[in-house]
Amino acid sequence: MELLSYTFFQYAIIGCLLASVVCGLVGTYVVTKRMLFISGGITHSSLGGVGLGLYLGLPPIFGASVFAILSALGIEWLAGRRDVREDSAIAMVWTFGMSVGVMFSYLTPGYVPDLTVYLFGNILTIQEGDLAFLAVLAVAVVAAYAMFRRLIVLVAFDEEYAASLKLPVTVFNYLAVVAVSLAVVSCIRIAGIVLTLSMLTVPTMTASLFTRDYTRIIILSIAVGFAACIGGLALSYWWNIPSGTSIVFVSIIIYLVSRLALRGCGRRQ
What we know:
The protein is mainly α. It has a single domain (2-192), classed as ABC transporter involved in vitamin B12 uptake, BtuC (Orthogonal Bundle). It is built from twelve helices and no strands. It has helices at 7-33, 36-45, 47-56, 60-79, 86-107, 116-120, 128-157, 159-164, 169-186, 188-208, 214-239, 243-264. It is globular and about 55 Å long.
Protein backbone atom coordinates (compact mmCIF):
# COMPACT_ATOMS: atom_id res chain seq x y z
CA MET A 1 0.00 0.00 0.00
CA GLU A 2 2.98 2.32 0.42
CA LEU A 3 3.30 2.43 -3.37
CA LEU A 4 -0.04 4.26 -3.60
CA SER A 5 1.55 7.28 -1.93
CA TYR A 6 3.92 7.75 -4.86
CA THR A 7 2.79 9.97 -7.70
CA PHE A 8 4.37 7.79 -10.41
CA PHE A 9 2.42 4.77 -9.15
CA GLN A 10 -0.83 6.73 -9.03
CA TYR A 11 -0.20 7.77 -12.62
CA ALA A 12 0.45 4.14 -13.53
CA ILE A 13 -2.90 2.98 -12.11
CA ILE A 14 -4.82 5.78 -13.84
CA GLY A 15 -2.99 4.95 -17.06
CA CYS A 16 -3.94 1.28 -16.66
CA LEU A 17 -7.62 2.15 -16.30
CA LEU A 18 -7.71 4.52 -19.27
CA ALA A 19 -5.72 2.17 -21.49
CA SER A 20 -8.02 -0.70 -20.53
CA VAL A 21 -11.03 1.32 -21.66
CA VAL A 22 -9.40 2.19 -24.98
CA CYS A 23 -8.15 -1.34 -25.62
CA GLY A 24 -11.44 -2.89 -24.55
CA LEU A 25 -13.42 -0.89 -27.09
CA VAL A 26 -10.93 -0.90 -29.96
CA GLY A 27 -9.65 -4.41 -29.26
CA THR A 28 -13.14 -5.91 -29.44
CA TYR A 29 -13.55 -4.44 -32.90
CA VAL A 30 -10.08 -5.63 -33.95
CA VAL A 31 -10.71 -9.21 -32.85
CA THR A 32 -14.25 -9.35 -34.23
CA LYS A 33 -13.23 -7.86 -37.60
CA ARG A 34 -10.11 -10.08 -37.67
CA MET A 35 -7.75 -7.13 -38.06
CA LEU A 36 -4.93 -8.65 -36.03
CA PHE A 37 -2.38 -8.63 -38.84
CA ILE A 38 -3.26 -5.04 -39.77
CA SER A 39 -2.97 -4.01 -36.12
CA GLY A 40 0.40 -5.73 -35.90
CA GLY A 41 1.60 -3.82 -38.95
CA ILE A 42 0.44 -0.50 -37.49
CA THR A 43 1.99 -1.31 -34.13
CA HIS A 44 5.45 -2.11 -35.45
CA SER A 45 5.46 0.65 -38.04
CA SER A 46 5.00 3.21 -35.23
CA LEU A 47 8.68 2.68 -34.40
CA GLY A 48 9.38 4.83 -37.44
CA GLY A 49 7.61 7.73 -35.73
CA VAL A 50 9.61 7.19 -32.56
CA GLY A 51 12.88 7.37 -34.50
CA LEU A 52 11.78 10.44 -36.46
CA GLY A 53 10.63 12.13 -33.27
CA LEU A 54 14.00 11.60 -31.64
CA TYR A 55 15.82 12.85 -34.74
CA LEU A 56 13.68 15.99 -35.13
CA GLY A 57 13.61 16.79 -31.42
CA LEU A 58 9.87 16.10 -31.13
CA PRO A 59 8.13 13.99 -28.46
CA PRO A 60 8.55 10.37 -29.62
CA ILE A 61 4.92 9.54 -28.79
CA PHE A 62 3.76 12.41 -31.01
CA GLY A 63 5.94 11.10 -33.83
CA ALA A 64 4.62 7.59 -33.27
CA SER A 65 1.03 8.87 -33.45
CA VAL A 66 1.54 10.65 -36.77
CA PHE A 67 3.50 7.79 -38.30
CA ALA A 68 1.03 5.16 -37.09
CA ILE A 69 -1.95 7.06 -38.52
CA LEU A 70 -0.24 7.58 -41.87
CA SER A 71 0.78 3.91 -41.93
CA ALA A 72 -2.77 2.80 -41.15
CA LEU A 73 -4.23 5.00 -43.88
CA GLY A 74 -1.58 3.74 -46.29
CA ILE A 75 -2.40 0.11 -45.51
CA GLU A 76 -6.13 0.74 -45.95
CA TRP A 77 -5.54 2.52 -49.26
CA LEU A 78 -3.17 -0.11 -50.63
CA ALA A 79 -5.44 -2.94 -49.49
CA GLY A 80 -8.30 -1.38 -51.45
CA ARG A 81 -6.35 -1.57 -54.72
CA ARG A 82 -6.78 -4.65 -56.86
CA ASP A 83 -3.10 -4.88 -57.81
CA VAL A 84 -1.83 -5.08 -54.21
CA ARG A 85 -2.57 -7.88 -51.76
CA GLU A 86 -3.49 -6.80 -48.25
CA ASP A 87 -0.85 -8.95 -46.53
CA SER A 88 1.82 -7.60 -48.89
CA ALA A 89 0.82 -4.01 -48.11
CA ILE A 90 0.93 -4.71 -44.37
CA ALA A 91 4.35 -6.37 -44.59
CA MET A 92 5.74 -3.46 -46.61
CA VAL A 93 4.50 -0.79 -44.20
CA TRP A 94 5.52 -2.91 -41.19
CA THR A 95 9.14 -3.32 -42.30
CA PHE A 96 9.41 0.23 -43.66
CA GLY A 97 8.36 1.73 -40.33
CA MET A 98 10.79 -0.36 -38.31
CA SER A 99 13.67 0.37 -40.67
CA VAL A 100 12.96 4.13 -40.53
CA GLY A 101 12.81 4.02 -36.74
CA VAL A 102 16.12 2.25 -36.30
CA MET A 103 17.82 4.34 -38.99
CA PHE A 104 16.84 7.73 -37.59
CA SER A 105 17.53 6.70 -34.00
CA TYR A 106 21.11 5.97 -35.06
CA LEU A 107 21.31 9.28 -36.97
CA THR A 108 20.11 11.28 -33.96
CA PRO A 109 23.03 13.42 -32.72
CA GLY A 110 24.08 13.31 -29.08
CA TYR A 111 22.55 11.07 -26.46
CA VAL A 112 19.77 8.81 -27.71
CA PRO A 113 17.23 7.51 -25.16
CA ASP A 114 17.06 3.76 -24.72
CA LEU A 115 14.63 2.36 -27.31
CA THR A 116 13.86 -0.54 -24.97
CA VAL A 117 11.31 1.68 -23.20
CA TYR A 118 9.40 2.06 -26.47
CA LEU A 119 9.84 -1.56 -27.54
CA PHE A 120 8.78 -3.23 -24.28
CA GLY A 121 7.15 -0.40 -22.33
CA ASN A 122 7.47 0.90 -18.80
CA ILE A 123 4.23 2.20 -17.36
CA LEU A 124 6.07 3.70 -14.39
CA THR A 125 7.50 6.34 -16.74
CA ILE A 126 4.04 7.59 -17.75
CA GLN A 127 3.63 11.36 -17.47
CA GLU A 128 0.75 13.82 -17.16
CA GLY A 129 0.80 14.41 -20.90
CA ASP A 130 0.39 10.68 -21.55
CA LEU A 131 -2.55 10.55 -19.15
CA ALA A 132 -4.18 13.53 -20.86
CA PHE A 133 -3.80 11.81 -24.24
CA LEU A 134 -5.26 8.58 -22.86
CA ALA A 135 -8.17 10.42 -21.21
CA VAL A 136 -9.12 12.27 -24.40
CA LEU A 137 -8.85 9.08 -26.45
CA ALA A 138 -10.92 7.08 -23.93
CA VAL A 139 -13.69 9.68 -23.96
CA ALA A 140 -13.59 9.81 -27.76
CA VAL A 141 -13.89 6.04 -28.28
CA VAL A 142 -16.66 5.72 -25.67
CA ALA A 143 -18.59 8.56 -27.30
CA ALA A 144 -18.05 7.08 -30.77
CA TYR A 145 -19.34 3.69 -29.66
CA ALA A 146 -22.36 5.24 -27.97
CA MET A 147 -23.28 7.20 -31.12
CA PHE A 148 -22.41 4.65 -33.81
CA ARG A 149 -22.91 1.31 -32.08
CA ARG A 150 -25.15 -0.13 -34.82
CA LEU A 151 -22.69 0.78 -37.58
CA ILE A 152 -19.72 -0.55 -35.63
CA VAL A 153 -21.37 -3.89 -34.94
CA LEU A 154 -22.62 -4.27 -38.52
CA VAL A 155 -19.23 -3.56 -40.07
CA ALA A 156 -17.45 -5.74 -37.51
CA PHE A 157 -19.58 -8.81 -38.28
CA ASP A 158 -20.69 -8.34 -41.90
CA GLU A 159 -19.13 -5.51 -43.89
CA GLU A 160 -20.86 -6.50 -47.14
CA TYR A 161 -24.28 -6.42 -45.54
CA ALA A 162 -23.51 -3.00 -44.05
CA ALA A 163 -22.51 -1.76 -47.51
CA SER A 164 -25.74 -3.12 -48.99
CA LEU A 165 -27.64 -0.90 -46.53
CA LYS A 166 -25.88 2.14 -48.07
CA LEU A 167 -23.91 2.77 -44.88
CA PRO A 168 -20.61 4.71 -45.20
CA VAL A 169 -18.45 1.61 -44.83
CA THR A 170 -15.39 2.94 -46.68
CA VAL A 171 -15.22 6.12 -44.61
CA PHE A 172 -15.80 4.12 -41.46
CA ASN A 173 -12.95 1.73 -42.29
CA TYR A 174 -10.54 4.65 -42.60
CA LEU A 175 -11.73 6.07 -39.28
CA ALA A 176 -11.45 2.63 -37.70
CA VAL A 177 -7.79 2.18 -38.64
CA VAL A 178 -7.07 5.68 -37.29
CA ALA A 179 -8.68 4.61 -33.99
CA VAL A 180 -6.57 1.46 -33.97
CA SER A 181 -3.46 3.58 -34.58
CA LEU A 182 -4.20 5.87 -31.65
CA ALA A 183 -5.01 2.89 -29.42
CA VAL A 184 -1.68 1.34 -30.36
CA VAL A 185 0.21 4.53 -29.54
CA SER A 186 -1.62 4.90 -26.23
CA CYS A 187 -0.28 1.51 -25.13
CA ILE A 188 3.36 2.09 -26.09
CA ARG A 189 4.21 3.48 -22.65
CA ILE A 190 2.53 0.51 -20.99
CA ALA A 191 3.44 -2.56 -23.03
CA GLY A 192 5.76 -1.23 -25.73
CA ILE A 193 5.63 -1.66 -29.48
CA VAL A 194 6.47 -5.36 -29.34
CA LEU A 195 3.74 -6.31 -26.84
CA THR A 196 0.95 -3.82 -27.51
CA LEU A 197 -0.92 -6.22 -29.79
CA SER A 198 -1.46 -8.50 -26.78
CA MET A 199 -3.21 -5.72 -24.86
CA LEU A 200 -5.57 -5.21 -27.79
CA THR A 201 -6.43 -8.88 -28.26
CA VAL A 202 -5.95 -11.07 -25.17
CA PRO A 203 -8.52 -9.36 -22.86
CA THR A 204 -11.10 -9.54 -25.66
CA MET A 205 -10.29 -13.20 -26.25
CA THR A 206 -10.81 -13.84 -22.54
CA ALA A 207 -14.10 -11.95 -22.49
CA SER A 208 -15.31 -13.90 -25.53
CA LEU A 209 -15.04 -17.11 -23.51
CA PHE A 210 -17.88 -15.95 -21.26
CA THR A 211 -20.26 -14.09 -23.58
CA ARG A 212 -21.11 -13.52 -27.24
CA ASP A 213 -22.83 -10.18 -26.73
CA TYR A 214 -20.72 -7.39 -28.27
CA THR A 215 -21.29 -4.81 -25.52
CA ARG A 216 -20.74 -7.33 -22.75
CA ILE A 217 -17.48 -8.41 -24.39
CA ILE A 218 -16.32 -4.79 -24.30
CA ILE A 219 -17.20 -4.35 -20.63
CA LEU A 220 -15.64 -7.64 -19.59
CA SER A 221 -12.50 -7.06 -21.67
CA ILE A 222 -12.03 -3.68 -19.96
CA ALA A 223 -12.26 -5.40 -16.58
CA VAL A 224 -9.86 -8.16 -17.63
CA GLY A 225 -7.42 -5.66 -19.09
CA PHE A 226 -7.40 -3.55 -15.93
CA ALA A 227 -6.99 -6.63 -13.72
CA ALA A 228 -4.05 -7.77 -15.88
CA CYS A 229 -2.44 -4.34 -15.61
CA ILE A 230 -2.73 -4.25 -11.82
CA GLY A 231 -1.53 -7.84 -11.53
CA GLY A 232 1.35 -7.10 -13.88
CA LEU A 233 2.36 -4.07 -11.84
CA ALA A 234 2.35 -6.17 -8.66
CA LEU A 235 4.40 -8.90 -10.36
CA SER A 236 6.80 -6.29 -11.68
CA TYR A 237 7.30 -4.91 -8.17
CA TRP A 238 7.74 -8.30 -6.50
CA TRP A 239 10.06 -9.85 -9.08
CA ASN A 240 11.79 -6.67 -10.26
CA ILE A 241 10.98 -7.29 -13.93
CA PRO A 242 9.77 -4.91 -16.70
CA SER A 243 6.16 -3.89 -16.19
CA GLY A 244 5.16 -4.23 -19.85
CA THR A 245 6.17 -7.87 -20.11
CA SER A 246 4.63 -8.74 -16.75
CA ILE A 247 1.28 -7.15 -17.72
CA VAL A 248 1.11 -9.18 -20.93
CA PHE A 249 2.20 -12.32 -19.05
CA VAL A 250 -0.59 -11.90 -16.48
CA SER A 251 -3.21 -11.23 -19.16
CA ILE A 252 -2.30 -14.47 -20.95
CA ILE A 253 -2.35 -16.39 -17.65
CA ILE A 254 -5.85 -15.02 -16.98
CA TYR A 255 -6.94 -16.25 -20.42
CA LEU A 256 -5.49 -19.74 -19.88
CA VAL A 257 -6.93 -20.07 -16.37
CA SER A 258 -10.35 -18.92 -17.59
CA ARG A 259 -10.31 -21.40 -20.46
CA LEU A 260 -9.27 -24.27 -18.22
CA ALA A 261 -11.86 -23.31 -15.60
CA LEU A 262 -14.64 -23.30 -18.18
CA ARG A 263 -13.53 -26.68 -19.50
CA GLY A 264 -13.50 -27.97 -15.94
CA CYS A 265 -17.09 -26.80 -15.60
CA GLY A 266 -18.00 -28.89 -18.64
CA ARG A 267 -18.38 -26.02 -21.14
CA ARG A 268 -17.04 -26.47 -24.66
CA GLN A 269 -15.32 -23.49 -26.28
